[in-house]
C-alpha cells in the first residue's frame, strides 16, 4: 500500500486534537474529517482544513472515504462509537478505556473479528523508554521470580479539572478514577506481569464529594496469577500538583523502581550481574491546561496503526489487552 492511510477523529478535546496533530504530521497519513458535538469555532481546530461533522452518523453518511476512525470522545461513548465504526466496515483506534465494562469489550472484539477489522487500544505509556526497558528486563528473566510489585499513583485532580460542564467526574461518562486517570499504569502492570486474582480493596472519597460521582482514593491488594503478590495505591486528592506514578518491583535477583510523576524515570536498578544502560529521555506528560497527564507518545500509536495496516508490523496494544485492563478495573471496583 503506497497510498496514505485516511483517518477521521471523533472528539476534538485535548486528546482528540493530539490525535489530529500526530496524524497530520505523519507523511503516510491523511486527516479527512473531524467530528464533535460542539461548535467548530469553540474547539480551537481552525488549523485543520478538513470537513467537520457534528455527529459520527453524519460523517459515515457523507461518502468521505476513511480507513480508520479514532475515538477520543468521553469514555462512556467509546463502546457505542467504536461499535458503529466497525459496523461501517472501518478499523478503529479507541482511547483508553476501550469500554467501561468487560461485556461491551467482548462484544466489540467479537464484531471486529466478524468484520475482519482491527481495534487498536491506546496505551501510549508502553512506548516510554523506562517501560520498554523494564519489559525487556522482566521478559529476559534477569529478575528471576517476581516476589512483590507495588504500584503507586498519586495525582492532583481538583476543581480545575472536575468542572461542572465537563464529562469528567460523571459516572456514566467517566467510569471512575481508575478508568480515567490510572488505567495506563494498570495496563503497564498487566503487560509486565499478567492477570491478577484474590483482589481486596479499600476505597475512600476524601475531598471529591462535590466534584465526582465516585471515589478519589483506594488501597488494593492482590496476587498475580503467574506468581507473586502486588498492591495498587492511588489517589487524586494530592494537593495542588501531581506527586508520583511509580512501580517498585522486588524480585529474586534484584529490585527496580520506576518513578517520577508519570513513571518516566528509573530511580532504582539493583539487579544481580546487570548494568543499567542509558535510556533515551521520556517525552513530557500531555498538557491538559492546568494538568499534566500520561506521556505524550501518541505519535507512536499512529505510526503503529500505519505499520499494521500496511503489513509491516504487529499491533502494539490489541483489543484483548484493552479488554483485560477494563476487566481488571471492573473486578477491582467489585470490591467496593
TrEMBL record:
Q: Which Pfam families match?
A: GFO_IDH_MocA, GFO_IDH_MocA_C3
**SUPFAM superfamilies membership:** Glyceraldehyde-3-phosphate dehydrogenase-like, C-terminal domain, NAD(P)-binding Rossmann-fold domains
Q: Which residues form the GFO/IDH/MocA-like oxidoreductase domain?
A: 134-256
Return the Gene3D superfamilies for the record: Dihydrodipicolinate Reductase, domain 2, NAD(P)-binding Rossmann-like Domain
Listed GO MF terms: nucleotide binding
Task: Specify the Gfo/Idh/MocA-like oxidoreductase N-terminal domain's residue ranges.
Answer: 5-120
The domain of life is Bacteria
Q: Report the protein name in the record.
A: Oxidoreductase
Amino acid at each position: 500500500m503506497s497510498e496514505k492511510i485516511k483517518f477521521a477523529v471523533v472528539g476534538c478535546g485535548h486528546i482528540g486534537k493530539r490525535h489530529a496533530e500526530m496524524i497530520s504530521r505523519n507523511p503516510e497519513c491523511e486527516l479527512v474529517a473531524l467530528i464533535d458535538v460542539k461548535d467548530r469555532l469553540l474547539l480551537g481546530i481552525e488549523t485543520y482544513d478538513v470537513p467537520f461533522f457534528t455527529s459520527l452518523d453524519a460523517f459515515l453518511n457523507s461518502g468521505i472515504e476513511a480507513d480508520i476512525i479514532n475515538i477520543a470522545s468521553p469514555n462512556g461513548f467509546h463502546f457505542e462509537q467504536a461499535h458503529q465504526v466497525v459496523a461501517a466496515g472501518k478499523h478503529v483506534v479507541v482511547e483508553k478505556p476501550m469500554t467501561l465494562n468487560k461485556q461491551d469489550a467482548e462484544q466489540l472484539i467479537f464484531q471486529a473479528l466478524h468484520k475482519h477489522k482491527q481495534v487498536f487500544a491506546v496505551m501510549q505509556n508502553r512506548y516510554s523508554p523506562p517501560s520498554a526497558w523494564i519489559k525487556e528486563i522482566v521478559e529476559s528473566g534477569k529478575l528471576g521470580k517476581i516476589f512483590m510489585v507495588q504500584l503507586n499513583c498519586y495525582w492532583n485532580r481538583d476543581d480545575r479539572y472536575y468542572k461542572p460542564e465537563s464529562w469528567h467526574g460523571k459516572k456514566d461518562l467517566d467510569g471512575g478514577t481508575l478508568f480515567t486517570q490510572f488505567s495506563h499504569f494498570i495496563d503497564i502492570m498487566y503487560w509486565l506481569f499478567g492477570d491478577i486474582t484474590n483482589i481486596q480493596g479499600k476505597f475512600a472519597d476524601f475531598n471529591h464529594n462535590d466534584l465526582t460521582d465516585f471515589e478519589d482514593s483506594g488501597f488494593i491488594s492482590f496476587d498475580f496469577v503467574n506468581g507473586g503478590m502486588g498492591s495498587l495505591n492511588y489517589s487524586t486528592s494530592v494537593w495542588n500538583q501531581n506527586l508520583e506514578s511509580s512501580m517498585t518491583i522486588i524480585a529474586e535477583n534484584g529490585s527496580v523502581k520506576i518513578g517520577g510523576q508519570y513513571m518516566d524515570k528509573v530511580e532504582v536498578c539493583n539487579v544481580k550481574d546487570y548494568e543499567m544502560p542509558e535510556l533515551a529521555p521520556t517525552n513530557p506528560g500531555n498538557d491538559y491546561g492546568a494538568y499534566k497527564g500520561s506521556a505524550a507518545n501518541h505519535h507512536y500509536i499512529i505510526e503503529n496503526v500505519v505499520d499494521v495496516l500496511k503489513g509491516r508490523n504487529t499491533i502494539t496494544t490489541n483489543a484483548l489487552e484493552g479488554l483485560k485492563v477494563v476487566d481488571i478495573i471492573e473486578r477491582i471496583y467489585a470490591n467496593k
